[in-house]
Fold each of these.
Amino acid sequence: MQAVILAAGLGSRLEDKTKYMPKGFIELNGIAIVEWSVQKLINAGIDKIIIGTGHCSNFYDDLAKKYSVIRTIKNYDYANVGSMATLDICVDLIDDDFLLLESDLIYDKAGLNVLINDRRSNIVLASGATCSGDEVYIEIGKNDLLKNISKKKDELANAGAELVGISKVSLKLLKSMRLFFDKNKKDFPKLDYEKVLASVSTGDCPVFVKKIQYYAWREIDDNNHLEMAKKEILPRIIENESLYSVEREVLLNPGPATTTDSVKYAQICPDICPREKKFGGIMRWICDELSAMVGKKENIKTVLFGGSGTAADEAMISSCIPDDGKLLIVNNGAYGLRLAKIAEVYKINFEIYESSGFLPIDIETLKSKLIDGKFTHIAIVYHETTTGLLNPVPEICRFCREYGIVTIVDAVSAFAAIPIDMDRDCIDFMASTSNKNIQAMAGAAFVFCRKQALENIKNYPMRNYYLNLWSQYLHFEKSKQMRFTPPVQTLYALRQAIIETKIETIEKRYARYSACWKELVKTVDELKLKMLVPLKHQSKMITAVLEPKSPKYNFDDFHDFAQKSGFTIYPGKISQADTFRIANIGDIKVWEMQEFCRILKKYMEEI
Ligand code: PLP
Ligand code: MG
Ligand code: MG
């Protein structure tokens, strides 16, 4: 669903506060009221927000730079017309049913869910009495139909509810609103959208009223409203919304990563048969958006599976090498070794290229090995999660492209943090999963495929039934369905995580991860602990720290100590050294990492 925010007005009743600024930018608790609203819409799964602007429109244009989901369109005649004229101007950007909101509202997010989850297409949200001094009253008819709207109580037979300023509007209703406006705009250019709503609500296109008696909301039109909002309403909203928050556990293990509450809540969705067209559309959207994160959408095909990251690895290794092919697998950690184990199971013709677990790959030797051994394929892990060592994948793959060697990359823990362009970086196949840097739930695996490379495998032997890449791709292209039952709720969460990743951007996500890593490294240095991988080869996402020599040190004690404060840590995974690993991927704030660093210090100082 989309949203439209009407934000053209002058806000003249707020006097000097809105002389050089739209009303929506008045701040409460340091956040503009329209930004509160935008964040709530995004958290409710809205991925397109159209804002009809007018007075001081540049403020909204700047907001759109911060939130990629926002599109703005300006009503130049804003000083002379009403809100319906602004809605009319937004129409070219609207291509689906939408939530319609005013820009000067603060509200409890529950109102959005109530409208989204209601089966009826056209609904206005209403509350009991607010005593705000600027009420818009609603007369509710039989069967909750919207009968009339007025600011004057005595114009209505029964002024039983108040209009909030959040509605759900179908494309069909929008059409009749515009027809009505066309007929009347000459005489009434200042028509408000709510008047039009009440005028067009008919048997053919009924508008219903959904009343929540004690709904917490306020429209801010004057200084009195602003005072009420600050003192009374916002604290109530914050209290109400805190009742839905999920216990915070910061996962410092290398995936599944910490997620936002909105991603967790995205799993609470209506039951749906995954063979329905609607769900097919969601999967299509997910695949296209994931493709766009690693290249040009037309060149990259994302193939989705139910499964963990290893499933995506297994799909690649079992599907992408012909019987007469020869695969070189780079092994510098547990995940490189896992690729080799998979190749062994499928009796692929392969060799292992061994490299140090904590020093960079010697690229020149690797290149000679590839050429001398007449390898047709290479498989390599982008980011060895075992140690936090980042492999020079683009450099290796560019070389391979020159020599016609197909490149298969495990980017399970690199994707959505390290900026990757499969065209630029010459990657043919690349595996990842929903539960790492994309910050969604475990259960979905995906393989990104360069379109031509994918076409080339179509006649390769089918060594695995469930995980065959070509069959899964073909089936989805034809039917918009996975061959077998998809992890429905995991995919809803993935959809939300994609929206949030696009807003943060992969570059800024990596910058956040790097800032967390910096905090950690600073503390590790202060404690005179040693790290396994030299700083400049670290991914800045996972840090393997050598365990202290103290006889009092015990990983399990350390783990339990951190867990008491809501942090989960992870043991090491290589046999050559005793390490513990701290990952900083996922929805982790810098201040949370600072908090963990205090705990790390405390434990180490105590022992
Ligand atoms: N490859 C890499 C680089 C990983 O980091 C992981 C998991 O941490 C995997 C593969 C396997 O993923 P999963 O445990 O989801 O099967
Ligand atoms: Mg209003
Ligand atoms: Mg208003």
Amino acid sequence: MPTNALTIAVPKGRVTKALAPLLERAGIDPSPILADDRRLIRESADGSLRFFLLKPDDVPTYVEYGTAELGISGRDVLNERGYDLYQPVDLGVGKCRLVVAGRAGQAIPPVPRVATKYPKSAMQHFAARGIQAEVIYVQGSVELAPIVGLADLIVDLVESGATLRDNGLVELETIAQISSVLVANPSLYKLRHDEVAPLIAKLRDAVASGK
Ligand code: PRP
């Protein structure tokens, strides 16, 4: 689909609504990404911007391959995979943390089984502590794993803490603070600098003015 519009890959889901006020402060109308329909490509009214609506995990991929100049990605995804991307602005939304959690008072075996959507981050965390963990990959509802005996521990995101609490789990250790980050394709950043740089500056100002 040939276009001159700058493309921003945005995550569908929780973060979308949190992004809206930030985009507005940056002078970007958020209504195309908030529209409640199934279109995966949305355009700004003046056609200068295009948005791809993606699963959060896929945002960096579209930017890394240059199908989008910019993207909005969680630090959890960036830390887990390691992409060749610029990260010019921490957007300060979608704030949560990656933690180790388990059942309250439960003894942890010497080689714990750890269920997670973040195998690399989990492996690195335990290896840095000299603990040999058996990491079990699951895609979601991670909190179920220690309750039913699939795992001793989980490594997962915590925002309000409600999911841990409602499932009788407690946070044991924080691995990383997470938020949404603006990412840019390095080559396109240079190639379209005159268009991309002002947009990044507007988003940086919008973050600062929201603090
Ligand atoms: C995320 C995360 C936790 C939950 C944390 O899951 O994996 O389960 O949110 O949020 P809380 O601390 O505010 O309760 P999500 O809702 O995205 O669904 P998933 O379990 O299918 O990954």
